[in-house]
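In the design runs reported in the main text, the only information available to the sequence generator was the tokenized backbone. The following block is the verbatim input for one such run; it is reproduced so that readers can re-run the procedure and compare outputs position by position.
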């Protein structure tokens, strides 16, 4: 069974304003239709795939997906989908949204987008959020790494900020998205330190040299087992992500250096991520 820890629910006409809508053309060097279609997702993933679905909230960047939409979407396929709520803690009322999404909607994790929303995730003023998640067993999926949105401060995407959070909240499960690209070394340094902090490999296969280099770094630091599979659908698919990982694993490598451990890369694809995140 494949567990996709990073897929989205976007309703293109409902959830985006500028600058997100206009800047998203940079994602793949051209306009991308980000409208999520279950039939498309299902057709491009194995039938037994289990999938974590997130929306997103970042007023600064023009993204706001209602948690009720995520809850309704996953409720249609409870055998396949697990929903997360999203928070923008720069906006008033986020505490109520947290409790409502968890206690009323039954969403089982939290998506944070510090760079898109414009907040420092290491700031102690957000410890109320982290303490709630730690206390109730809600794993975090945190955007780390670059973006296409001009208004999003890159500083707040640096993986190192989550080190301080993990130190203060050692039982909090966190997944750092996209292996922190292109700051993979920083991401690896964080996940290596903390037993409950992981990274996903979503949205990396279409940059093949970067993915190969990132996996080699993870191998050298002994943290390939801390990498979780994710697609980042609708930016790419499960099938294409699996194919890309396997193609990278088959590359002989640089002469004089050992190749990637193909079995360890295959283990990323088959990782029991729901168990690791307390969601099984």
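Verbatim output:
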């Amino acid at each position: 069974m494949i567990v996709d820890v990073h897929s989205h629910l976007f309703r293109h006409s409902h959830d985006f304003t500028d600058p997100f809508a206009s800047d998203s053309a940079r994602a793949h060097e051209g306009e991308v239709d980000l409208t999520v279609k279950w039939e498309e997702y299902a057709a491009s993933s194995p039938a037994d795939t289990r999938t974590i679905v997130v929306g997103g909230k970042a007023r600064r960047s023009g993204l706001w997906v209602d948690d009720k939409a995520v809850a309704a979407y996953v409720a249609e396929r409870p055998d396949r989908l697990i929903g997360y709520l999203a928070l923008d803690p720069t906006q008033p009322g986020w505490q109520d949204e947290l409790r409502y999404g968890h206690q009323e909607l039954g969403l089982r994790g939290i998506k944070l987008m510090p760079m898109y929303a414009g907040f420092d995730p290491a700031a102690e003023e957000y410890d109320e959020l982290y303490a709630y998640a730690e206390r109730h067993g809600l794993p975090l999926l945190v955007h780390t790494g670059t973006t296409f949105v001009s208004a999003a401060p890159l500083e707040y995407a640096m993986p190192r900020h989550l080190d301080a959070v993990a130190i203060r909240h050692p039982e909090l499960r966190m997944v750092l998205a996209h292996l922190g690209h292109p700051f993979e070394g920083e991401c690896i340094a964080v996940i290596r330190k903390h037993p409950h902090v992981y990274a996903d490999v979503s949205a990396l296969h279409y940059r093949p040299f970067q993915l190969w280099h990132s996996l080699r770094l993870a191998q050298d630091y002994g943290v390939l087992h801390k990498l979780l599979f994710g697609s980042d659908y609708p930016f790419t698919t499960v099938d294409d992500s699996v194919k890309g990982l396997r193609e990278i694993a088959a590359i002989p490598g640089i002469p004089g250096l050992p190749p990637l451990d193909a079995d360890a890369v295959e283990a990323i694809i088959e990782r029991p991520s729901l168990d690791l995140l307390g969601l099984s």
